[in-house]
Design brief:
single chain; 238 residues; mainly alpha
C-alpha cells in the first residue's frame, strides 16, 4: 500500500495513466472497426472514472497530475487557425450561410437546453451551467464562471454533449445523405465542439477546418447571446 500511495501522489503518474488509457482506447476503437459507439474519448472517460473510483482517488489529486493536458486545450484551439487560413478563400465565399448557420445553431443549442431545464424547474445556477453545453470547454468554463454557474458541472455537460454528438453524427449524415465534407465538419464543430472537430479531422482536412471555424464562432456567439437569452427567460445570473 505505501508503494501505491507514493506513486499516486506523483503528478506525472496521472499524466502517464491518462495517456496510456487514451492509447488503449484508440486501439480498442480500431479493432472494433472505428465504431462511434466506442469512441476513444468516451472509452477513456469511462476507464479513468472507473480507475479513480476503484482506487478511491479524489478528482483534485488526479487533476493535479493531468492539468498539463487541460492547459493544452488553449493552444490546441488556437492551432485550429492554421487549417482555417489554408481554406480562407472557400470560407470567405460562404460567409453568409456560415453566419446564419452559426447564429441559428448557437441560439438553438442554448435555448433548447434552457427550456428543457425550465420544464424540469431546475435552479438558476444549474440552468446557467447547462446553457453552454455545446461550446468548447475553455469557453464554456469561462461563461459558467462569469454568469454564476458551476464550472465543473458545465465541463461535465460539455463532455457528454460532445460524446453524444460524435456517436450520432455518422448516422445522421447517412440518414440525410450528406456527402459534403465542409457541411459535415461545420455541423460537428457547431454541435459537438472540440470532440466534433477532432472527429471532423478524421473525415478530411477541410472538414476539420470547417469544424474548427464552427467551434470558434459558436463559442464567441454564445458568450454574447447567452446573457440576452437568460435575461429574456428571467433567469438570474451572478
Amino acid at each position: 500500500m505505501p508503494f501505491w500511495v507514493y506513486f499516486s501522489a506523483q503528478p506525472l503518474f496521472w499524466l502517464i495513466i491518462t495517456l496510456l488509457a487514451y492509447q488503449l482506447c484508440c486501439r480498442i476503437n480500431r479493432v472494433a472497426g472505428a465504431t462511434p459507439l466506442l469512441h476513444p474519448v468516451i472509452l477513456t472517460l469511462t476507464l479513468l472514472i472507473s480507475f479513480l473510483l476503484l482506487t478511491g482517488t479524489h478528482y483534485e489529486t488526479y487533476f493535479a497530475g493531468a492539468q498539463f493536458i487541460h492547459f493544452l486545450l488553449g493552444p490546441a484551439t488556437v492551432a485550429l487557425a492554421i487549417p482555417l487560413y489554408d481554406h480562407r478563400r472557400q470560407i470567405r465565399s460562404l460567409w453568409k450561410p456560415i453566419t446564419i448557420a452559426c447564429l441559428s445553431g448557437a441560439s438553438t443549442a442554448a435555448l433548447t437546453a434552457l427550456l428543457v431545464g425550465l420544464i424540469f424547474d431546475l435552479p438558476d445556477r444549474i440552468l446557467v451551467s447547462l446553457a453552454p453545453k455545446s461550446v468548447t470547454s475553455p469557453i464554456a468554463l469561462g461563461i459558467a464562471d462569469k454568469l454564476g454557474g458551476y464550472p465543473s458541472l458545465a465541463a461535465g455537460l460539455v463532455l457528454i454533449t460532445g460524446a453524444i454528438g460524435c456517436v450520432l453524427a455518422p448516422w445522421i449524415f447517412r440518414w440525410l445523405n450528406i456527402q459534403d465534407d465542409a457541411i459535415k465538419g461545420f455541423t460537428l464543430g457547431l454541435g459537438a465542439h472540440g470532440f466534433g472537430t477532432a472527429s471532423a479531422f478524421g473525415i478530411s482536412v477541410i472538414a476539420g477546418a470547417f469544424g474548427g471555424l464552427a467551434m470558434g464562432l459558436t463559442g464567441l456567439l454564445t458568450a454574447f447571446l447567452l446573457p440576452l437569452l437568460l435575461g429574456i427567460l428571467g433567469i438570474h445570473t451572478q
